[in-house]
């Protein structure tokens, strides 16, 4: 840390992303990514003559991508803001709306980045505990007047709140913002995007890193009322006008349009999720009902920390959170069928060793 | 603007990038871009099997790209910070070091983004006038204790300050930061990057949007002491850990390594610049000595505003700044030889019409 860094960052605790070790070839099930390929249309764009024109700046408004997203979600283009991953979208959103005087809240068990953000920017952030059964305590969000950040489905639990419950929070106080992070919405859930036409205090954040198989391209967006989007564009134009480059605009558009391909991929993930859940339950695991591309599991005789270490020894990376309420749970991303069969096979070996 | 936007942004004036009109095919010489292709190595990477793996997150440390940049500039990898364009690098830098209590300064005539930034984030920004001849008043920067932001070469003037002059500013006060934006350094000038090994208050910012023919990929970086880079990475990890996606890491690395290709492109731009300068002078223009990929020109009988409008009618876009001291100057990007021949031909027509 240099002597020049602003005082307010002295307590900065950076977010620790899922590790990317290179010491051997791992089956990576620790960051809710996928080894499935992007849409063939995405790969075509990367090979197209458009790339010869990279000497020119991209459209700073990213209209092509925003139009495609708007059509997919049945909203106006001016209701769409795009960024380099949903993290950047959240970043602009935090910059625009929250400062040292702001009060926000989010669950105690959720995507760790909200807390990192709040700490970095000196925002008064309160963790509202999930209920005993790890579901979101909707009444607590209705009662508080703090701005709300909720991941829905939540991570790492995988639980989904129906749109009517989100709406209860949104209507309860029109003078605070409600940010719903729908990173995992595509795995069989209903989005609350239609509510953005009715309420001007709701922002719905999406990512292409999960269901579009594009974590490595890191494209995210949010949908909200036109006024909120105008704010975000204002901040973006003051911070990084060309934040989306022409490659991400082009491949993002291609991905958004290829719904048929991704529908197939998503169905495969859902099938593999149910297969994995079923198999692990046969081995005595409790597997939380997941509405996402990961599962959150616990076992009566095998501590999650040990399970994680053993999986790693066998070349499989999962995500362990060393946090009080969930220290005996492990989050495992759902990969291809072959990858999940490997998980089951290795798990049975680990359990056998335990008995021996 | 929504009711939720923080009070401090109410006076926000967004940066206006060079326009990207699509009503016809223009020769675009208004944003210091290029119609030259990126390196063939860049295009190869985009077609390679690496792109099949976009389902996985990129290395959040972007080590591959930072290593290539470090080797090119003969510094340590930990002295390199990368971002989505030099604007984003400047953005993180402003977030890290400047707030409402900070005092910064920059020339009255320079890249408009510094002023936009200062206004957006409520930083006390002072414009120090260029001298009568449009050169930087180095003594004024030595005397002030404000943090310094200087573009070198400067835009839109095109003038370059030698490293010894930069060093004078840097040593004059080790307790303030000096940020040197070397966006146009590659067009025949000496970089002050070596000074970063000697001084811990210097940050040198580079972009691949100009001399690497990659405006559309929007990749930038800065080089400074390891402690300053540690600060910037901390902010980045709290704001957008995966800010560089795997595509930009891959093509940025390929571009940095293909020095032979870009050396040729740069030489072509320099040749075209001298050709254009020479031709315009023959037509009575005064052309400031440029150390960049653009020229700044004025004519005794043709007002710059009119010259700009006429060029546009003929399908050529240049950049006019409606600002007091430079309102009779026009900035023209140096393109390919064919594009510059067209500029000269059209200019001669415009001047003929004037006489008629």
SSE topology:
The structure is a homodimer of 356-residue chains.
Chain A: E1 27-28, H1 40-47, H2 63-73, E2 80-83, H3 85-97, E3 103-107, H4 113-120, E4 124-128, H5 138-143, E5 147-151, H6 163-172, E6 178-181, E7 202-207, E8 220-223, H7 226-239, H8 246-257, H9 259-282, E9 286-287, E10 294-298, H10 304-313, E11 316-317, E12 319-320, E13 330-333, H11 337-355
Parallel strand pairs in A: 1-11, 3-4, 3-5, 5-6, 6-7
Antiparallel strand pairs in A: 2-8, 7-8, 9-10, 10-13, 12-13
Fold and architecture overview:
The structure is a homodimer of 356-residue chains. Chain A is an alpha/beta fold. Chain A has 2 domains: 7-37 and 260-355, Aspartate Aminotransferase, domain 1 (Alpha-Beta Complex); 40-258, 3-Layer(aba) Sandwich (Aspartate Aminotransferase, domain 2), CATH 3.40.640.10. Chain A contains 11 helices and 13 strands. In chain A, the strands form 3 sheets. Chain A has a 7-stranded mixed β-sheet with strand order 2-8-7-6-5-3-4, with helices on both faces. The first copy, chain A, has a 4-stranded antiparallel β-sheet with strand order 9-10-13-12. A two-stranded parallel sheet of chain A has the order 1-11. In chain A, helix 2 packs parallel to helix 8 (246-257). The longest helix of chain A is centred in the last third of the chain and has 24 residues, at 259-282. The model of chain A has no long low-confidence stretch (mean pLDDT 95). Chains A, B: This is Histidinol-phosphate aminotransferase. Chains A, B: It catalyses: L-histidinol phosphate + 2-oxoglutarate = 3-(imidazol-4-yl)-2-oxopropyl phosphate + L-glutamate. Chains A, B: Residues 26-344 form the Aminotransferase class I/classII large domain. Chains A, B: Keywords: Amino-acid biosynthesis, Aminotransferase, Histidine biosynthesis, Pyridoxal phosphate, Transferase. Chains A, B: The modification N6-(pyridoxal phosphate)lysine is found at residue 210.
């Amino acid at each position: 840390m240099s002597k020049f860094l602003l005082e307010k960052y002295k307590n900065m605790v950076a977010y620790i992303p899922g590790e990317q070790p290179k010491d051997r070839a791992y089956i990576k099930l620790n960051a809710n990514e996928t080894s499935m390929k992007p849409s063939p249309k995405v790969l075509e764009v990367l090979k197209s003559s458009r790339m010869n024109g990279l000497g020119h700046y991209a459209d700073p408004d990213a209209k092509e991508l925003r139009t495609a997203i708007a059509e997919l979600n049945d909203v106006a283009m001016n209701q769409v803001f795009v960024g380099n991953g949903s993290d950047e979208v959240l970043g602009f959103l935090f910059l625009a709306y929250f400062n040292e005087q702001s009060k926000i809240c989010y669950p105690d068990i959720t995507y760790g980045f909200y807390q990192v953000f709040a700490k970095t920017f000196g925002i008064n952030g309160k963790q509202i505990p999930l209920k005993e059964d790890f579901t979101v305590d909707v009444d607590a969000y209705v009662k508080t007047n703090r701005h709300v950040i909720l991941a829905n489905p939540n991570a790492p639990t995988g639980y989904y709140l129906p749109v009517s419950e989100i709406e209860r929070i949104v209507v309860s106080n029109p003078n605070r913002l409600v940010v719903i992070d729908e990173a995992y919405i595509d795995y069989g859930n209903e989005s609350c995007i239609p509510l953005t036409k009715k309420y001007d205090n709701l922002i719905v954040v999406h990512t292409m890193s999960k269901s579009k198989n594009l974590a490595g391209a890191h494209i995210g967006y949010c949908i909200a009322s036109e006024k909120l989007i105008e704010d975000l564009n204002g901040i973006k134009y003051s911070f990084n006008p060309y934040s989306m480059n022409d490659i991400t605009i082009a491949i993002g558009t291609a991905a958004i349009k290829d719904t048929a391909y991704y529908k197939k991929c998503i169905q495969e993930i859902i099938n593999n999720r149910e297969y994995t859940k079923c198999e692990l339950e046969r081995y005595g695991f409790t597997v939380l009902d997941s509405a996402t591309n990961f599962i959150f599991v616990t076992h009566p005789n095998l501590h999650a920390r040990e399970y994680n270490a053993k999986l790693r020894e066998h070349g499989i990376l999962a995500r362990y959170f060393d946090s009080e309420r969930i220290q005996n749970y492990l989050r495992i991303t759902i990969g291809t069928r072959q990858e999940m069969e490997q998980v089951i096979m290795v798990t049975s070996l680990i359990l056998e060793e335990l008995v021996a």
